[in-house]
Structure formats: C-alpha cells, structure tokens
Specification:
This protein is an alpha/beta fold. The chain is built from ten helices and nine strands. It is globular, with a radius of gyration of 18 Å. The chain starts with 9 loop residues before the first strand and ends with a helix. Strands 1, 2, 3, 4, 5, 6, 7, 8 and 9 form a nine-stranded mixed beta sheet that branches. Helix 2 links the parallel strand 2 and strand 3.
C-alpha cells in the first residue's frame, strides 16, 4: 500500500489588539478549513480593552494558543513574535477582524509545494461589512509591486523566505509593513503567485489602520524607498521593468 504523504504544517498567525469582538470569528474560520495540519497562534499585543483580554484569557479552541505581549509593540512586531514561535513550514498572517474560506490553506499550500522557488501565494478577496465587493489582485509583478501594493497580507508565506529577509520591518508601525515585506522578498528573489479564487474575507468597518496609513501614504512610501535604495535606482528599475515586461 502506498504511504499517504504527510501534509506540511501551516501556522496561522493572528495579531490582536482590542479586537475581541472579532477574533473568535477569525479563529473559527480557520478551524473550518478543509486542510487539517495547522496551528493557530494569537498574539495579544497588550490590549487595553477588558473585553478583548477576557476573550483571549479564556480562549479554549482546538489547535490554538495565545502569546501575550507585556507592552504594545505594533503589528509587524506582533507578526514576528508569532512567526518566531511558529512550527510551520508555511505561515498565514490573518488580521483579527478578517476570515478565510475553508479551501484557503489547502489551495495555497498546493502551489507552494509544487513551486519551491515561490515565496508566497495571494488569493482573491471579498470585502464585507460596510463595503461589499469582490477583488482579484493582478498577476504578481515585481516592477508593479515597487509602486503599488498588489498583494494582501493574508497570503500563505514560506517561512524560509521570511527568515532570509529578517521578518517584517518592526519600524513600520504606521502601516504598509506588508508592502515593505513583499518588496523585501522580491529583492531576495522570492516572488509571489496569485490564485483567482475568492478565499480571503476582508472586513470593512469604520476607521482602521489602513485608513490611517493612507493619510501617511507619501511618508510611508519614502520610508520604503529609503529602506530599499538599490531597487529604486533608475538603472535597476529599468532592468526590473524589462525583466517583468512592463
């Protein structure tokens, strides 16, 4: 009898700061996954909301455990904390107010297993809450990525690639840390793939970190360019544009 191949372990990482009203829904969406070999790591980034702390203190979900920060460190540091503790070959960042579809992990793992040189896999997404629409990101293109964030943070990532670039930039606490991360991966030759399927559910509700980041767009873009000076030199940009046929 042919031995069944063991599924690689996937680590879902969920930073949580005062999102106790949503985090259980995020966890439950993972637990409904058609893929079985995964763990869920929630990082309580020193929440100040008593309700959130109560939810996380009493959390009793399969495959799930909580790491508590003793001080608020911000989103990129919270992700790094979880990934350092993660046992998975791959990790999936999921914000505490979002959810995934049951097939997300299974379909994205399939791509990374088939293509060992691919760094991450993005999917289509559905906006819900105060906004309802479907968005399928463009096909991965490094040149386009240098000027526009075309990938959602909720993408399955190869942990080896995260290690090579030193993780998320913890200085980017005002946003765009995911965009900066994708650029760092691209600089090291870890490119992305896209699945057209709508497998990620992005909740829209009032003011969010993305709303605040957009207000600081110009400053954050300058920060990204300062962090990657070689990529943005005119001669290097021309080379990348030619390589990616844009």
């Amino acid at each position: 009898m042919k031995k069944k191949k063991t599924q690689p372990l996937v680590s879902v990482i969920i930073p949580c700061y005062n999102y106790g009203q949503y985090v259980v829904e995020a966890i439950d969406s993972c637990l409904q996954s058609s893929y079985e070999n995964f763990e869920i790591i929630v990082v309580n980034d020193c929440s100040t909301d008593p309700y959130t702390n109560n939810v996380l203190s009493n959390l009793n979900k399969p495959k799930t455990y909580v790491i508590n920060h003793t001080e608020n460190k911000g989103l990129p540091a919270s992700r790094n904390t979880a990934i350092k503790a993660a046992k998975g070959k791959y990790f999936l960042p999921l914000d505490a107010d979002d959810t995934i579809e049951p097939a997300f992990i299974q379909k994205t793992v399939r791509v990374l297993e088939k293509h060992p040189n691919v760094g991450f896999v993005a999917t289509g997404r559905r906006h819900f809450g105060t906004e309802n629409k479907i968005h399928v990101p463009p096909k991965y293109n490094l040149y386009k990525l240098l000027f526009q964030n075309i990938c959602a943070v909720t993408s399955l990532v190869r942990k080896e690639a995260w290690e090579e670039v030193g993780g998320f930039n913890e200085k980017m606490i005002d946003g765009y840390e995911d965009w900066a991360f994708w650029i760092s991966l691209g600089e090291k030759g870890w490119f992305g793939r896209r699945i057209d399927d709508i497998l990620f559910n992005y909740r829209k509700h009032g003011e969010s970190m993305i709303t605040e980041s957009i207000k600081k767009h110009d400053d954050l873009v300058k920060q990204i360019r300062v962090n990657h000076p070689e990529l943005y030199k005119p001669e290097r940009l021309a080379q990348i544009k030619k390589e990616w046929k844009k």
